[in-house]
Amino acid sequence: MKMIRLSSRLRVAAAALAAAGVFVAAAGLFLSHPAALQAQGQKVVWSDREKPIAEQIGGLRALPDDVRGQATKKLALEIRQLPVTPNKLRLANSLAMLSTEGDFGHEMLQEVAATLAAALREQPLPAEKGQPPRPYVELAELVRYEHVQATLDDPQFAAAVSKIESDNERREQADFTLTDLVGNTWTLKEQRGKVVVLNFWATWCPPCRKEMPDLEKLYQQFKDQGLVILAISDEDAGKVKPFVAQQKVTYPILLDPGRKVNELFQIEGIPKTFVYDRNGKLVAQSIDMRTRRQFLEMLAQAGLK
User: Using an 8 Å Cβ cutoff, are 303 and 195 in contact?
Assistant: First the structure.
């Protein structure tokens, strides 16, 4: 099997779940137990209570959307009842990473956030190279972008909240120039006066593929009102062009093979979407896949309705 780069967000979730000994779908790549553990440099042994939960988390993407929300909520409650072990935090964080891949209900997200906060309260983590560990950032993003409630008296959580705000300040000031699939160049700051949607994606990413038809419909609906969608991929044109043609996507696809713009925007997981209003202000963003309804809410914050 050809190995491909995974975002850090998905690598962590995939490795933790693959340790259950099952095949886990993450970012379009099926990771088996040995490969995942070797990539993470750790050995995970699940208890009899933990392993079924890990297996169910690994199967969430296969569930219909109208079933997935309740299944996720149930898993969050089951994780909360587990004894305090490092695996409990692994499961809570992995579930949180998958809970935002669509529109599965605020109640479910609240339970997921409560479970992750409780696991971090039970097992605080030290800073990693001066930065808050990923589970704290995951929780802070749920609070900031999914509007759930979570309290955690932990300096690493406070650091994660501050990191999100400082990252967004840099993203609001960021500028770049990239070339699309037909050779046109696009500069972000030159789009002032339009509503701009930046969508970071890849052909191998299942949630990215799932949201593309909705983005295309929104582009057709609002492009005459000044909507610009710039979808940024770090893959080669030879891989992106046939995929885009097959998907019948008409909004611009920009290539970032050196990942300079991905790094500028500190993209750790995809899909990730940013919405700028006509004055260039960053008014909305997503931490994962969005549905058409959720995209419409984001566009409304930029004045498009």
Answer: yes
- Provide the 8-state DSSP code for 191: G
Q: What H or E segment, with its residue span, contains residue 271?
A: none
Q: Which residues lie closer than 8 Å to 130 by C-beta, 6 or more apart?
A: none
Closest residue by Cα to residue 299 from 234, 227, 201: 227
> Which residues on adjacent β-strands are paired with residue 187?
177
Q: Hey, what amino acid is at 210?
A: K
Answer for the pair 156, 125: CB distance below 8 angstroms, yes or no.
Answer: yes
Which residues have a Cβ under 8 Å from the Cβ of 116 and sit 6 or more positions away? 92, 93, 95, 96, 135, 138, 139, 142, 150
pTM of the entire structure? 0.84
Q: What is the mean pLDDT of the chain?
A: 88
Spans in the chain with pLDDT lower than 50: 1-40
Identify the DSSP state of 225: G
Taking CA atoms, 296 is separated from 31, 169, 218, 267, 275, in Å, by: 34, 23, 8, 23, 11
